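Quick start: read one record
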Amino acid sequence: MSGIPLTPEELQKFNIIRAVIDRKFTNGEAARKLEISVRHLQRLKSDVQRNGTSAVIHKLKGKVGNHQIEPNIKRQVLNDIKSKYADFKPGLATEKLHEEYQLTITSQTIRVWMIEEGLWKMRKRRSVEYHAWRERKEYFGELEQFDGSYHFWFEGRLLDEAGNPQEVCLLASIDDATSKITHAKFELNEGVVAVFNFWMEYVKAPGKPFGIYLDKYSTYKINHKNAVDNAELLTQFQKAMRILNIEVIPANSPQAKGRVERLFQTLQDRLVKELRLNNISSIKDGNRLLKEIFIPKFNAKFSVVATKDGDIHRPLTKQERHDLTSIFSIKSIRRINHDFTIQFKSNFYQLEEIQPVTIRPKEKVLVEEWLNGTIHFKFKECYLKYFILPERPKKISSQPVILTNHPLNWKPPPDHPWRQFKYSTKRG
Protein backbone atom coordinates (compact mmCIF):
# COMPACT_ATOMS: atom_id res chain seq x y z
CA MET A 1 0.00 0.00 0.00
CA SER A 2 2.91 2.35 0.73
CA GLY A 3 4.03 2.08 -2.91
CA ILE A 4 0.80 3.56 -4.23
CA PRO A 5 1.21 7.25 -5.18
CA LEU A 6 -0.99 9.76 -3.42
CA THR A 7 -3.53 11.88 -5.23
CA PRO A 8 -3.47 15.67 -4.58
CA GLU A 9 -6.47 15.31 -2.25
CA GLU A 10 -4.83 12.50 -0.32
CA LEU A 11 -1.56 14.44 -0.08
CA GLN A 12 -3.37 17.53 1.25
CA LYS A 13 -5.19 15.38 3.80
CA PHE A 14 -1.91 13.81 4.96
CA ASN A 15 -0.16 17.20 5.28
CA ILE A 16 -2.98 18.63 7.43
CA ILE A 17 -2.90 15.62 9.75
CA ARG A 18 0.93 15.89 10.03
CA ALA A 19 0.52 19.56 10.91
CA VAL A 20 -1.81 18.58 13.76
CA ILE A 21 0.70 16.01 14.97
CA ASP A 22 3.41 18.70 14.84
CA ARG A 23 1.08 20.99 16.86
CA LYS A 24 0.76 23.56 14.06
CA PHE A 25 -3.07 23.13 14.02
CA THR A 26 -5.52 22.26 16.72
CA ASN A 27 -7.83 19.27 16.29
CA GLY A 28 -10.79 21.58 15.78
CA GLU A 29 -9.08 23.68 13.08
CA ALA A 30 -7.95 20.58 11.15
CA ALA A 31 -11.38 18.95 11.41
CA ARG A 32 -13.03 22.04 9.90
CA LYS A 33 -10.48 22.12 7.06
CA LEU A 34 -11.10 18.45 6.24
CA GLU A 35 -14.87 18.76 6.92
CA ILE A 36 -14.87 15.79 9.30
CA SER A 37 -15.64 15.39 12.97
CA VAL A 38 -12.95 15.92 15.64
CA ARG A 39 -13.36 12.31 16.77
CA HIS A 40 -12.70 11.02 13.24
CA LEU A 41 -9.67 13.31 12.98
CA GLN A 42 -8.23 11.82 16.15
CA ARG A 43 -8.58 8.32 14.69
CA LEU A 44 -6.83 9.43 11.49
CA LYS A 45 -4.04 11.09 13.50
CA SER A 46 -3.36 7.86 15.37
CA ASP A 47 -3.44 5.87 12.12
CA VAL A 48 -0.94 8.24 10.44
CA GLN A 49 1.45 7.93 13.40
CA ARG A 50 1.35 4.13 13.07
CA ASN A 51 1.14 3.56 9.27
CA GLY A 52 2.28 6.79 7.60
CA THR A 53 0.78 7.75 4.23
CA SER A 54 -1.19 4.50 3.88
CA ALA A 55 -3.58 5.84 6.53
CA VAL A 56 -5.09 8.36 4.09
CA ILE A 57 -5.42 5.87 1.23
CA HIS A 58 -8.65 3.88 0.85
CA LYS A 59 -8.08 0.24 1.75
CA LEU A 60 -9.61 -1.00 -1.55
CA LYS A 61 -7.45 1.25 -3.72
CA GLY A 62 -5.46 -0.81 -6.22
CA LYS A 63 -7.46 -3.97 -5.49
CA VAL A 64 -9.97 -5.76 -7.66
CA GLY A 65 -13.54 -4.95 -6.62
CA ASN A 66 -15.71 -7.67 -5.14
CA HIS A 67 -18.43 -7.03 -7.79
CA GLN A 68 -16.15 -6.72 -10.81
CA ILE A 69 -17.58 -8.42 -13.90
CA GLU A 70 -15.42 -11.24 -15.22
CA PRO A 71 -13.25 -10.28 -18.23
CA ASN A 72 -14.65 -13.08 -20.44
CA ILE A 73 -18.23 -11.82 -19.89
CA LYS A 74 -17.15 -8.27 -20.69
CA ARG A 75 -15.49 -9.43 -23.90
CA GLN A 76 -18.57 -11.43 -24.95
CA VAL A 77 -20.86 -8.46 -24.31
CA LEU A 78 -18.62 -6.11 -26.30
CA ASN A 79 -18.48 -8.58 -29.20
CA ASP A 80 -22.29 -8.73 -29.28
CA ILE A 81 -22.53 -4.95 -29.17
CA LYS A 82 -20.08 -4.64 -32.08
CA SER A 83 -21.89 -7.23 -34.20
CA LYS A 84 -25.53 -6.27 -33.46
CA TYR A 85 -25.79 -2.97 -31.61
CA ALA A 86 -22.79 -0.93 -32.76
CA ASP A 87 -24.82 2.25 -33.38
CA PHE A 88 -27.13 1.80 -30.37
CA LYS A 89 -27.07 4.21 -27.47
CA PRO A 90 -25.85 2.64 -24.19
CA GLY A 91 -29.35 2.59 -22.67
CA LEU A 92 -30.97 0.83 -25.62
CA ALA A 93 -28.04 -1.58 -25.97
CA THR A 94 -28.44 -2.50 -22.29
CA GLU A 95 -32.16 -3.23 -22.80
CA LYS A 96 -31.46 -5.51 -25.77
CA LEU A 97 -28.70 -7.38 -23.92
CA HIS A 98 -31.05 -7.89 -20.98
CA GLU A 99 -33.81 -9.21 -23.29
CA GLU A 100 -31.40 -11.60 -25.02
CA TYR A 101 -29.16 -12.79 -22.15
CA GLN A 102 -30.95 -11.64 -18.96
CA LEU A 103 -27.78 -9.74 -17.95
CA THR A 104 -27.99 -7.44 -14.93
CA ILE A 105 -25.25 -5.08 -16.11
CA THR A 106 -26.24 -1.43 -15.74
CA SER A 107 -26.38 1.04 -18.60
CA GLN A 108 -23.67 3.11 -16.86
CA THR A 109 -21.27 0.17 -17.05
CA ILE A 110 -22.17 -0.48 -20.70
CA ARG A 111 -21.56 3.21 -21.44
CA VAL A 112 -18.05 3.06 -19.91
CA TRP A 113 -17.23 -0.10 -21.89
CA MET A 114 -18.51 1.40 -25.14
CA ILE A 115 -16.45 4.56 -24.58
CA GLU A 116 -13.34 2.44 -23.96
CA GLU A 117 -13.95 0.55 -27.23
CA GLY A 118 -14.66 3.75 -29.20
CA LEU A 119 -18.32 2.76 -29.79
CA TRP A 120 -19.71 5.79 -27.98
CA LYS A 121 -18.59 9.37 -27.55
CA MET A 122 -19.61 11.77 -24.85
CA ARG A 123 -21.59 14.64 -26.32
CA LYS A 124 -21.55 18.25 -25.26
CA ARG A 125 -24.77 19.61 -23.88
CA ARG A 126 -26.65 21.87 -26.24
CA SER A 127 -27.61 25.36 -25.23
CA VAL A 128 -31.33 25.45 -24.48
CA GLU A 129 -33.57 28.42 -25.18
CA TYR A 130 -35.99 29.49 -22.48
CA HIS A 131 -39.57 28.27 -22.82
CA ALA A 132 -42.15 28.55 -20.08
CA TRP A 133 -43.23 25.22 -18.57
CA ARG A 134 -46.81 24.14 -19.09
CA GLU A 135 -48.52 21.79 -16.67
CA ARG A 136 -49.75 18.50 -18.10
CA LYS A 137 -53.46 17.94 -18.63
CA GLU A 138 -55.14 16.01 -15.84
CA TYR A 139 -57.04 13.26 -17.70
CA PHE A 140 -56.14 10.69 -20.31
CA GLY A 141 -57.88 11.78 -23.52
CA GLU A 142 -58.07 15.46 -22.61
CA LEU A 143 -55.41 16.57 -25.13
CA GLU A 144 -53.49 14.74 -27.87
CA GLN A 145 -50.32 16.17 -29.42
CA PHE A 146 -50.11 15.18 -33.09
CA ASP A 147 -47.42 15.51 -35.75
CA GLY A 148 -45.68 13.74 -38.62
CA SER A 149 -41.98 13.04 -39.14
CA TYR A 150 -40.29 12.36 -42.48
CA HIS A 151 -37.31 10.06 -42.00
CA PHE A 152 -35.53 7.04 -43.51
CA TRP A 153 -37.33 4.80 -41.04
CA PHE A 154 -36.55 1.62 -43.00
CA GLU A 155 -32.98 2.76 -43.80
CA GLY A 156 -31.96 1.16 -47.11
CA ARG A 157 -34.47 -1.68 -47.06
CA LEU A 158 -37.44 0.27 -48.51
CA LEU A 159 -36.73 1.56 -52.02
CA ASP A 160 -38.59 3.96 -54.30
CA GLU A 161 -39.31 3.39 -57.99
CA ALA A 162 -35.81 4.58 -58.91
CA GLY A 163 -34.20 2.08 -56.54
CA ASN A 164 -33.14 4.66 -53.94
CA PRO A 165 -33.81 4.45 -50.18
CA GLN A 166 -37.29 5.87 -49.58
CA GLU A 167 -38.12 8.46 -46.95
CA VAL A 168 -41.60 7.96 -45.48
CA CYS A 169 -43.68 9.80 -42.90
CA LEU A 170 -44.55 8.50 -39.45
CA LEU A 171 -47.78 10.02 -38.08
CA ALA A 172 -48.08 9.81 -34.31
CA SER A 173 -50.21 11.13 -31.46
CA ILE A 174 -49.13 11.21 -27.83
CA ASP A 175 -51.38 11.83 -24.84
CA ASP A 176 -50.48 14.97 -22.93
CA ALA A 177 -51.43 13.63 -19.49
CA THR A 178 -49.70 10.24 -19.66
CA SER A 179 -47.12 10.45 -22.50
CA LYS A 180 -48.66 7.30 -23.99
CA ILE A 181 -48.47 6.81 -27.74
CA THR A 182 -52.17 6.59 -28.52
CA HIS A 183 -51.74 5.89 -32.23
CA ALA A 184 -48.90 5.74 -34.78
CA LYS A 185 -48.86 4.86 -38.45
CA PHE A 186 -46.43 4.91 -41.38
CA GLU A 187 -47.64 6.76 -44.50
CA LEU A 188 -45.96 7.93 -47.71
CA ASN A 189 -46.72 11.56 -46.84
CA GLU A 190 -48.54 13.85 -44.42
CA GLY A 191 -51.32 14.86 -46.79
CA VAL A 192 -55.05 15.20 -46.18
CA VAL A 193 -55.87 11.58 -47.06
CA ALA A 194 -53.13 10.17 -44.81
CA VAL A 195 -54.09 12.38 -41.85
CA PHE A 196 -57.81 11.64 -42.29
CA ASN A 197 -57.14 7.88 -42.40
CA PHE A 198 -55.10 8.23 -39.21
CA TRP A 199 -57.82 10.05 -37.27
CA MET A 200 -60.65 7.91 -38.62
CA GLU A 201 -58.88 4.88 -37.15
CA TYR A 202 -58.23 6.81 -33.93
CA VAL A 203 -61.81 7.89 -33.17
CA LYS A 204 -63.11 4.39 -33.93
CA ALA A 205 -60.90 2.83 -31.22
CA PRO A 206 -60.30 4.95 -28.08
CA GLY A 207 -62.88 7.56 -29.12
CA LYS A 208 -62.87 11.34 -29.51
CA PRO A 209 -60.32 13.34 -27.48
CA PHE A 210 -61.35 16.77 -26.24
CA GLY A 211 -58.51 18.54 -28.04
CA ILE A 212 -55.72 18.04 -30.58
CA TYR A 213 -52.53 20.11 -30.50
CA LEU A 214 -50.81 20.24 -33.91
CA ASP A 215 -48.68 22.40 -36.18
CA LYS A 216 -49.86 25.29 -38.25
CA TYR A 217 -49.21 22.91 -41.10
CA SER A 218 -49.17 25.38 -43.99
CA THR A 219 -46.25 27.24 -42.41
CA TYR A 220 -43.87 24.32 -41.84
CA LYS A 221 -42.38 21.52 -43.94
CA ILE A 222 -44.04 23.05 -46.98
CA ASN A 223 -40.89 22.62 -49.07
CA HIS A 224 -40.45 18.94 -48.26
CA LYS A 225 -40.36 16.92 -51.47
CA ASN A 226 -42.96 14.41 -50.21
CA ALA A 227 -45.36 16.94 -48.67
CA VAL A 228 -48.73 17.30 -50.42
CA ASP A 229 -51.96 19.24 -49.80
CA ASN A 230 -50.22 21.47 -47.27
CA ALA A 231 -52.13 24.66 -47.98
CA GLU A 232 -55.56 23.19 -47.25
CA LEU A 233 -54.78 20.47 -44.74
CA LEU A 234 -55.42 22.51 -41.61
CA THR A 235 -58.67 23.92 -43.04
CA GLN A 236 -59.99 20.49 -44.06
CA PHE A 237 -58.92 19.00 -40.73
CA GLN A 238 -60.64 21.77 -38.78
CA LYS A 239 -63.88 21.16 -40.71
CA ALA A 240 -63.88 17.47 -39.80
CA MET A 241 -62.99 18.09 -36.15
CA ARG A 242 -65.65 20.79 -35.82
CA ILE A 243 -68.32 18.25 -36.83
CA LEU A 244 -66.99 15.82 -34.20
CA ASN A 245 -66.79 18.60 -31.57
CA ILE A 246 -63.02 18.19 -31.11
CA GLU A 247 -61.02 21.37 -30.45
CA VAL A 248 -58.05 21.94 -32.78
CA ILE A 249 -55.22 24.00 -31.27
CA PRO A 250 -52.57 25.10 -33.81
CA ALA A 251 -49.11 25.51 -32.25
CA ASN A 252 -47.09 28.61 -33.05
CA SER A 253 -43.75 26.82 -32.65
CA PRO A 254 -42.38 23.25 -32.43
CA GLN A 255 -41.45 23.88 -28.78
CA ALA A 256 -45.12 24.46 -27.93
CA LYS A 257 -45.84 20.80 -28.61
CA GLY A 258 -42.52 19.58 -27.25
CA ARG A 259 -43.86 16.22 -26.07
CA VAL A 260 -44.47 14.92 -29.59
CA GLU A 261 -41.27 16.56 -30.88
CA ARG A 262 -39.22 14.71 -28.25
CA LEU A 263 -41.14 11.53 -29.07
CA PHE A 264 -39.88 11.63 -32.66
CA GLN A 265 -36.30 12.15 -31.47
CA THR A 266 -36.64 8.98 -29.41
CA LEU A 267 -38.37 7.03 -32.19
CA GLN A 268 -35.75 7.99 -34.78
CA ASP A 269 -33.28 6.14 -32.56
CA ARG A 270 -35.26 3.26 -31.05
CA LEU A 271 -37.86 2.52 -33.71
CA VAL A 272 -35.35 2.51 -36.58
CA LYS A 273 -33.29 -0.11 -34.74
CA GLU A 274 -36.34 -2.22 -33.87
CA LEU A 275 -37.32 -2.28 -37.55
CA ARG A 276 -33.77 -3.32 -38.44
CA LEU A 277 -33.60 -6.10 -35.81
CA ASN A 278 -36.91 -7.49 -37.10
CA ASN A 279 -35.75 -7.11 -40.74
CA ILE A 280 -38.88 -5.15 -41.67
CA SER A 281 -38.79 -3.46 -45.08
CA SER A 282 -42.40 -2.50 -45.85
CA ILE A 283 -44.91 0.03 -44.52
CA LYS A 284 -47.50 -2.70 -43.92
CA ASP A 285 -45.17 -4.80 -41.76
CA GLY A 286 -43.91 -1.66 -40.02
CA ASN A 287 -47.45 -0.70 -39.01
CA ARG A 288 -48.06 -4.20 -37.71
CA LEU A 289 -44.89 -4.01 -35.56
CA LEU A 290 -45.97 -0.62 -34.22
CA LYS A 291 -49.41 -1.81 -33.19
CA GLU A 292 -48.62 -5.27 -31.83
CA ILE A 293 -45.14 -4.93 -30.29
CA PHE A 294 -43.47 -1.53 -30.23
CA ILE A 295 -46.20 0.77 -28.87
CA PRO A 296 -47.21 -1.55 -25.96
CA LYS A 297 -43.53 -1.91 -24.93
CA PHE A 298 -42.87 1.81 -25.31
CA ASN A 299 -45.88 2.81 -23.23
CA ALA A 300 -45.03 0.30 -20.52
CA LYS A 301 -41.54 1.80 -20.20
CA PHE A 302 -42.03 5.54 -20.73
CA SER A 303 -45.65 6.47 -19.88
CA VAL A 304 -46.55 8.20 -16.62
CA VAL A 305 -49.64 8.13 -14.42
CA ALA A 306 -52.19 10.86 -15.09
CA THR A 307 -52.98 13.32 -12.31
CA LYS A 308 -56.58 12.09 -12.19
CA ASP A 309 -57.95 8.63 -12.91
CA GLY A 310 -60.21 7.96 -15.85
CA ASP A 311 -60.31 7.91 -19.63
CA ILE A 312 -62.39 10.83 -20.92
CA HIS A 313 -62.33 9.92 -24.61
CA ARG A 314 -65.91 10.26 -25.89
CA PRO A 315 -67.42 7.41 -27.94
CA LEU A 316 -68.82 8.16 -31.40
CA THR A 317 -72.56 8.61 -31.55
CA LYS A 318 -74.58 6.34 -33.82
CA GLN A 319 -75.04 9.18 -36.30
CA GLU A 320 -71.34 10.11 -36.26
CA ARG A 321 -70.34 6.50 -36.89
CA HIS A 322 -72.79 6.34 -39.81
CA ASP A 323 -71.48 9.61 -41.28
CA LEU A 324 -67.78 8.92 -40.66
CA THR A 325 -66.83 8.54 -44.34
CA SER A 326 -68.54 11.86 -45.03
CA ILE A 327 -66.96 13.61 -42.07
CA PHE A 328 -63.45 12.51 -43.08
CA SER A 329 -63.79 13.58 -46.70
CA ILE A 330 -62.14 16.41 -48.61
CA LYS A 331 -64.84 19.02 -49.10
CA SER A 332 -65.19 21.63 -51.86
CA ILE A 333 -67.97 23.84 -53.23
CA ARG A 334 -69.03 23.78 -56.91
CA ARG A 335 -71.85 25.43 -58.86
CA ILE A 336 -74.32 23.53 -61.10
CA ASN A 337 -74.11 24.56 -64.76
CA HIS A 338 -77.18 25.40 -66.92
CA ASP A 339 -77.06 21.91 -68.45
CA PHE A 340 -77.00 20.34 -64.98
CA THR A 341 -73.36 19.34 -65.18
CA ILE A 342 -70.71 19.91 -62.53
CA GLN A 343 -67.07 20.41 -63.39
CA PHE A 344 -64.61 19.09 -60.83
CA LYS A 345 -60.89 18.35 -61.30
CA SER A 346 -60.96 18.21 -65.13
CA ASN A 347 -63.98 15.92 -65.17
CA PHE A 348 -67.60 16.70 -66.01
CA TYR A 349 -70.38 15.03 -64.04
CA GLN A 350 -73.93 14.91 -65.44
CA LEU A 351 -76.73 14.96 -62.88
CA GLU A 352 -79.49 12.44 -63.62
CA GLU A 353 -83.03 13.60 -64.34
CA ILE A 354 -84.55 12.02 -61.23
CA GLN A 355 -83.07 13.36 -57.96
CA PRO A 356 -84.04 13.04 -54.28
CA VAL A 357 -84.40 16.82 -54.01
CA THR A 358 -85.37 19.66 -56.35
CA ILE A 359 -82.38 21.26 -58.08
CA ARG A 360 -82.03 24.38 -60.19
CA PRO A 361 -79.11 25.66 -62.27
CA LYS A 362 -76.49 27.78 -60.48
CA GLU A 363 -77.21 26.07 -57.16
CA LYS A 364 -74.10 25.43 -55.08
CA VAL A 365 -73.40 21.83 -54.09
CA LEU A 366 -70.93 20.32 -51.64
CA VAL A 367 -68.37 18.01 -53.26
CA GLU A 368 -67.04 15.24 -51.03
CA GLU A 369 -63.95 13.26 -52.01
CA TRP A 370 -64.13 10.13 -49.89
CA LEU A 371 -60.97 8.36 -48.77
CA ASN A 372 -61.74 5.45 -51.10
CA GLY A 373 -61.39 7.83 -54.08
CA THR A 374 -65.09 8.19 -54.95
CA ILE A 375 -66.79 11.55 -55.60
CA HIS A 376 -70.11 12.49 -54.01
CA PHE A 377 -72.28 15.60 -54.52
CA LYS A 378 -74.38 16.72 -51.57
CA PHE A 379 -77.26 19.21 -51.64
CA LYS A 380 -79.65 19.86 -48.75
CA GLU A 381 -78.30 16.80 -46.90
CA CYS A 382 -79.09 14.55 -49.90
CA TYR A 383 -76.59 12.84 -52.20
CA LEU A 384 -77.27 13.53 -55.88
CA LYS A 385 -77.29 10.91 -58.63
CA TYR A 386 -74.84 11.44 -61.50
CA PHE A 387 -72.71 9.80 -64.16
CA ILE A 388 -69.32 10.85 -65.55
CA LEU A 389 -69.25 12.34 -69.08
CA PRO A 390 -66.49 11.14 -71.43
CA GLU A 391 -65.83 14.67 -72.66
CA ARG A 392 -66.86 18.29 -72.18
CA PRO A 393 -70.62 18.59 -72.89
CA LYS A 394 -71.76 20.61 -75.91
CA LYS A 395 -74.15 23.51 -75.55
CA ILE A 396 -77.79 22.75 -76.31
CA SER A 397 -80.63 25.17 -77.10
CA SER A 398 -83.41 23.66 -74.97
CA GLN A 399 -82.60 22.76 -71.41
CA PRO A 400 -84.70 21.60 -68.44
CA VAL A 401 -85.53 24.25 -65.88
CA ILE A 402 -85.28 22.05 -62.77
CA LEU A 403 -84.54 18.49 -61.71
CA THR A 404 -86.79 16.91 -59.14
CA ASN A 405 -87.86 13.53 -57.77
CA HIS A 406 -90.12 12.69 -60.74
CA PRO A 407 -89.88 13.07 -64.55
CA LEU A 408 -90.55 16.54 -65.95
CA ASN A 409 -93.36 15.24 -68.26
CA TRP A 410 -95.06 13.54 -65.33
CA LYS A 411 -98.85 13.82 -65.15
CA PRO A 412 -100.69 13.53 -61.82
CA PRO A 413 -103.13 10.59 -61.47
CA PRO A 414 -106.92 11.21 -61.23
CA ASP A 415 -106.94 10.94 -57.43
CA HIS A 416 -104.10 13.44 -57.01
CA PRO A 417 -105.06 16.52 -54.89
CA TRP A 418 -104.37 18.74 -57.87
CA ARG A 419 -107.28 17.10 -59.74
CA GLN A 420 -109.64 17.28 -56.76
CA PHE A 421 -109.77 21.09 -56.72
CA LYS A 422 -112.87 22.69 -58.27
CA TYR A 423 -113.88 26.31 -58.67
CA SER A 424 -116.88 27.28 -56.60
CA THR A 425 -120.08 28.05 -58.57
CA LYS A 426 -121.42 30.22 -55.82
CA ARG A 427 -120.89 33.92 -56.03
CA GLY A 428 -120.57 36.11 -53.03
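The chain has four domains: 8-56, 73-116, 144-302, 330-428.
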